[in-house]
Amino acid sequence: MTSATRTTDVISIRQRVLPQPLFSLVLLAVWLLAQGKLELSTVIGGVILALVLPALTYRFTDTFPKVRRVRPLIQYIVIVMWDILIANLTVARLILGPTRKLKPIFLEVPVKLTNPYAITIFAATISLTPGTVSANLSGDRKTLLVHALTSDDPDAEIQLMKARYEAPLLEVFQ
Amino acid sequence: MILTYAIATAFGIVSAAILLNAYRLFQGPDVLDRVVALDTMNINAIALLLLAGIWWSTDLFFEAALLIAMMGFVGTVGLARFLLRGDLIE
Amino acid sequence: MEELPLYLQSIIAALIIFGAIFAFIGSLGLAKLPDFYMRLHGPTKATTLGLGAMLVGSMVYFSVTKGSLTLHEILITLFLFITAPVSAHILSKSAIRSRIYDSTGMVEEKTRELF
């Protein structure tokens, strides 16, 4: 009984002092990067900001989904960074090649993710990877309209996107 | 030495890119095309600032580049949103 | 500019030229491609990576000349990689809303159906 109340106390204290630990960490990192030097004064300033800003603003933001598994997330980041490099070479080739060979098309990608932040990450990934830019999200957040610069096989493209980017995100966040 | 030539060349290439953006900016045909052209111009301007920073070996330009990056994004989203809804804050 | 050893100069030079070429290709796509949605591809991808490469070059340069690791260029890179897809998305969203049609005529259909 007492231990149960104590844990809830701890949780509520943690929620009041540090409602969004990840956000605080990012704020601190950005602050230190912007300062460009690692001194005691800048670190103290950064820690104060990282504690005060989330505490003031967390009521206004939606909840960022909980990262359930870290390993798939790291794998995902590596895959996406590699794909960004490939994407740029592909798009460069397409732009430099003859324009009339391009077959632009709109694809409708069904979205299984539910959290708005997770969908945002998915859409941003699509925009940064080969030949596709996310263009619109339907009102019920179930379909993402994606513009592809050129596509010979739209259905395969959709399946690839879902398997390569959405599946790992589902694993990380849900 | 190599670096001097490389930076000079890069200045030339990025300037040419900015000219292409200017072409799209004047050509249109839609307002949104012009917004995209301005946004790209912003990014190319950041590139020029970075090159200038290496050329004169100073990091004074870094803050300017960061400011342009942030203001450029806010400006683009503001314009796009204005064109989307006809008003910025509902 | 300070004199650096040749191999460092070559690395930085290669990164800068690579970045400049990609920035140029992005802008070329913006100028050359026939409809609005296709034009968006250039700036969101090629230009962002081009600037990323130049920023890495600048990072290497300042880390070497100052003798300490300089990381604050990462801030610009990260910022651009986060914002580029967002602005592309909102731009094409408002293009669909204001009924700018693409060359295949698909936007019209899709806007009726879904959005």
Quote the distance from N terminus to C terminus of chain B: 56 Å
Shape of chain B: flat
Helix content of chain B: over 70%
Radius of gyration of chain B: 16 Å
How many DSSP H or I helices of chain B? 3
Helix content of chain A: 55-70%
Tally of strands of chain B: 0
End-to-end Cα distance of chain A: 31 Å
The topology string of helices and strands of chain A comes to HHHHEHEEH
CATH architecture group name of chain B: Orthogonal Bundle
Organism (chain C): Lujinxingia vulgaris
Keywords (chain C): Membrane, Transmembrane, Transmembrane helix
Pfam family, one (chain C): PhaG_MnhG_YufB
Transmembrane segments (chain C): 6-25, 46-64, 70-91
Folded structure, characterized:
The complex is a heterotrimer of chains A (174), B (90) and C (115). With 174 residues, chain A is mostly helical. Chain A contains six helices and three strands; from the N terminus they run ααααβαββα. Chain A folds into two domains: 2-60, no CATH class; 70-173, 2-Layer Sandwich (Alpha-Beta Plaits). In chain A, helix 2 packs antiparallel against helix 3. The longest helix of chain A is centred in the middle third of the chain and has 27 residues, at 70-96. The model of chain A has no long low-confidence stretch (mean pLDDT 77). Chain B has a single domain (2-85), classed as Orthogonal Bundle (Helix Hairpins), CATH 1.10.287. Chain B is built from three helices and no strands. Chain B has 90 residues and is mostly helical. Chain C is mainly alpha-helical and 115 residues long. Chain C has one domain (6-113). Helix content of chain C is 78%, strand content 0%. Chain C is built from five helices and no strands. Chain C has helices spanning 6-32, 36-39, 41-66, 73-97, 106-113. Chain C is elongated, with a radius of gyration of 19 Å. The termini of chain C are far apart. The mean pLDDT of chain C is 80. At the B-C interface, helix 1, helix 2 and helix 3 of B face helix 1, helix 3 and helix 4 of C. Chain B: Its main location: membrane. Chain B: It is a multi-pass membrane protein. Chain B: It comes from Lujinxingia vulgaris.
